[in-house]
């Protein structure tokens, strides 16, 4: 189900944050680095706010890496070519149904070093003050896609994904339940075939920080 349109889209921030969380918890040094960043930027006495998100560059890199490695679906929504066109030497006649392989792009060994490894560092812009973007206009993977039919809500989708992931990381101590493994979840090809993610969550902030419902 898409956060914005339910009839044709399929992406959503909850899916992106869930994959990112599974990968992060699976590698404790990445979990520590992400949580340390949040503690440094935000602290433990208030929840992450929207204004913090641009400074959480390592968490942004984790979310971007989750989009690369775990597209919500194996293929992008089909598009129909309006005219004859040649792309990278391939002739595509007018009227063709064009499907981009999201799995193939994000895991392409010609574009990505060790493509099956979850390595957020690959997205950190060394020497740049700009926040890591979750969009990929070069289509080396597909998150919000690009062009005329690309997602018009990339900025909103980025903020929602980042807010959800950051607060989950900030608010809870995560662990894998004894006797279970994340491997089945992490090795599945898309959100439709993955088993549910089961983790333990314990509070990690002072009680007054959590919103109370009366
Ligand atoms: C993590 C969050 C999101 C992701 C990864 C995402 C990704 C995408 C992708 C891949 C497409 C299809 C592009 C194509 O056809 O090639 C799309 C289309 C679209 N998205 Fe999103 N989206 C997200 C959130 C949202 C939200 C929050 C909204 C609205 C509030 C939204 C509104 C739309 C609309 C209206 C389209 C159709 C655009 C068109 O066909 O012209 N998306 N999105």
TrEMBL record:
Cofactor(s) this protein requires: heme
Keyword line: Heme, Iron, Metal-binding, Monooxygenase, Oxidoreductase
Record: residues binding heme: 151
Domain of life: Eukaryota
Pfam families named among the record's database cross-references: p450
Residue spans crossing the bilayer: none
Entries under InterPro entries matching the protein: CYP450_AA/FA_Hydroxylases, Cyt_P450, Cyt_P450_CS, Cyt_P450_E_grp-I, Cyt_P450_sf
One GO BP annotation of this record: secondary metabolite biosynthetic process
Gene Ontology MF term list: heme binding; iron ion binding; monooxygenase activity; oxidoreductase activity, acting on paired donors, with incorporation or reduction of molecular oxygen
SUPFAM superfamilies: Cytochrome P450 (SSF48264)
Annotated family: Belongs to the cytochrome P450 family.
Name this polypeptide is given: Cytochrome P450
Organismal lineage: Eukaryota, Viridiplantae, Streptophyta, Embryophyta, Tracheophyta
């Amino acid at each position: 189900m898409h956060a914005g349109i339910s009839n044709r889209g399929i992406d959503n921030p909850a899916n992106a944050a869930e994959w990112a969380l599974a990968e992060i918890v699976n590698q404790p040094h990445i979990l520590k680095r992400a949580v340390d960043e949040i503690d440094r930027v935000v602290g433990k006495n208030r929840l992450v706010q929207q204004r913090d998100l641009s400074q959480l560059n390592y968490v942004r890199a984790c979310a971007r890496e989750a989009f690369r490695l775990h597209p919500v679906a194996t293929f992008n929504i089909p598009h129909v070519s309006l005219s004859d066109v040649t792309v990278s030497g391939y002739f595509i006649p007018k009227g063709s149904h064009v499907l981009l392989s999201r799995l193939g792009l994000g895991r392409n060994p010609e574009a990505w070093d060790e493509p099956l490894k979850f390595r957020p560092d690959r997205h950190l812009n060394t020497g740049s003050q700009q926040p890591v973007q979750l969009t990929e206009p070069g289509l080396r993977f597909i998150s919000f896609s690009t062009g005329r039919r690309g997602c018009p809500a990339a900025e909103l989708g980025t903020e929602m994904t980042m807010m959800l992931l950051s607060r989950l990381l900030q608010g809870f101590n995560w662990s894998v339940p004894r006797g279970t493994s994340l491997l089945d979840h992490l090795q599945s090809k898309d959100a439709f075939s993955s088993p549910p993610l089961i983790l333990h969550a314990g509070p990690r902030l002072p009680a007054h920080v959590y919103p109370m419902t009366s």
